[in-house]
Write a structure and sequence with these properties.
By secondary structure, the chain is an alpha/beta fold. It has three domains: 88 residues, Periplasmic binding protein-like II (D-Maltodextrin-Binding Protein, domain 2), CATH 3.40.190; 77 residues, D-Maltodextrin-Binding Protein, domain 2 (3-Layer(aba) Sandwich); 81 residues, Alpha-Beta Plaits (2-Layer Sandwich), CATH 3.30.70.260. The protein contains nine helices and 15 strands. The strands form three sheets. Strands 1, 2, 3, 4, 5 and 11 form a six-stranded mixed sheet that branches. Strands 8-7-9-6-10 form a five-stranded mixed sheet. Helix 8 packs antiparallel against helix 9. The longest helix has 11 residues. It is elongated. The relative contact order is 0.17.
């Protein structure tokens, strides 16, 4: 049995990602924050961690991309989870009795239309499932939380409304962290971080090395370096494994136009 770390309480969407990737019999280690997930793997407390990196509606989880610069960990897999929010409360609570709704800020934002029509105060918390746990522990009868159906089951709470998100096409992409990435499967992706040198056309030429070799880029995003104002790192995903000749050549050629390159890892593409 594998032990896998994730951020949040039992019932969090990150826990669902763990089970989807590793199987239902996996042992999980809930962590208070994303840094603790990275630390757990680095310190060999667990062999794997799972962290969200991108939501189809809200965009990238920037904190986790930044943590990859601090920790020498690899991406060995990715998994995509459909997000289906429910309004959850204590078993005796009726919908009309709810005066406040708790959840992670992203979850509240994703259910804004429903919640604004509902007309109750929205209170942000650190975690979706953690909000349900808090309602349970404090016995709050006039509050509800936005979280998963699984969270309601785990804490023996009542679902007042299902599928309340504004957009039903709501998915979150998670990375699986480990000390090593994955071997070649033939259906792989590679993630890297690089900074372009300060020369005209450097980014154009850097990306051109992938185009020359017919390598498909699936994501590119810039993030501030946090060292020098208006300087950026680029986060890039492309199809193929770093060990394949055309990918290896592209990464080597990229070095001519990059101030630094960090290969996060190659891994099988999520279904």
């Amino acid at each position: 049995m594998k032990m896998v770390a994730f951020q949040g309480e039992r019932g969090a969407y990150s826990e669902s990602a763990v089970y989807k990737f590793f199987g239902a019999q996996t042992t999980v280690k809930p962590c208070k924050d994303f840094r603790s997930v990275f630390e757990s793997v680095v310190k060999n407390e667990v062999p794997y961690g799972v962290v969200p990196v991108e939501n189809s509606l809200e965009g990238s989880v920037n904190q986790n991309y930044d943590l990859f610069l601090e920790y020498d960990l690899k991406v060995c897999g990715e998994v995509i989870v459909k997000i289906e929010h429910c309004l959850i409360a204590n078993p005796s609570t009726k919908l009309e009795e709810v005066k406040a709704v708790y959840s992670h800020p992203q979850a509240l934002a994703q259910c804004r239309n429903f919640l604004e029509k509902f007309g109750r105060e929205m209170i942000p918390t650190y975690d979706t499932a953690g909000s349900v746990k808090m309602l349970k522990e404090k016995g709050l009868k006039t509050a509800a939380a936005v979280a998963s159906e699984r969270a309601a089951e785990i804490y023996d709470m009542k679902i007042l409304a299902r599928d309340i998100a504004d957009n039903k096409e709501n998915y979150t992409r998670f990375f699986v962290l480990a000390k090593e990435d994955s071997p070649l499967t033939g259906k792989d992706k590679t993630s890297i971080i690089f900074a372009a040198v300060h020369e005209p056309g450097s980014l154009y030429h850097a990306l051109g090395e992938f185009a020359k070799r017919n390598i498909n880029l699936t994501k590119i995003e810039s993030r501030p370096t946090k060292r020098t104002p208006w300087e950026y790192n680029f986060y890039l995903d492309f199809e193929g494994h770093r060990s394949e000749a055309h990918c290896s050549e592209a990464l080597q050629a990229l070095g001519r136009y990059a101030a630094f390159i960090k290969i996060l890892g190659s891994y099988p593409k999520a279904a």
